[in-house]
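Per reviewer request, we include the raw input and output of the structure prediction for the construct analysed in the revised manuscript.
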Amino acid sequence: MKIVVQRVKNAQVDVEGNTVGKIGVGFLVLLGVTHGDTKEQADYLVKKLCNLRVFTDENDKMNLSIKDVNGQLLIVSQFTLYADCSNGNRPSFTEAAKPDQANELYEYFCKQCENNEIHVEKGIFGADMKVSLINDGPVTIIIEK
């Protein structure tokens, strides 16, 4: 399981011209699931995400977590995080989990974030989504388990 975390001033996801998820200050999280990923791995990533200290304090030092700044999460499933570009120019996505498994872990991940008392907005699993954001910093971190 892999997440790409972007610290944002705001972000939103639209499907077919309709906004389905929108946040202010917080993280845009792109979540990829591969074969054999488990709820235990999701729990590890949720803990890391919810305690990641990359928001600036009064001394302009990255020292605060999303909880400390009352931030929000926009979580978007993204199978392309498991693209294999080692052969040719057309990526292979065989390392991405099957949709049923990926959606189950995506929903579990989102629920666990909500259980940490963080407001969560989501994309629509499997939809063609348009994601927009203002990356703050920019700060972009990749965490894998």
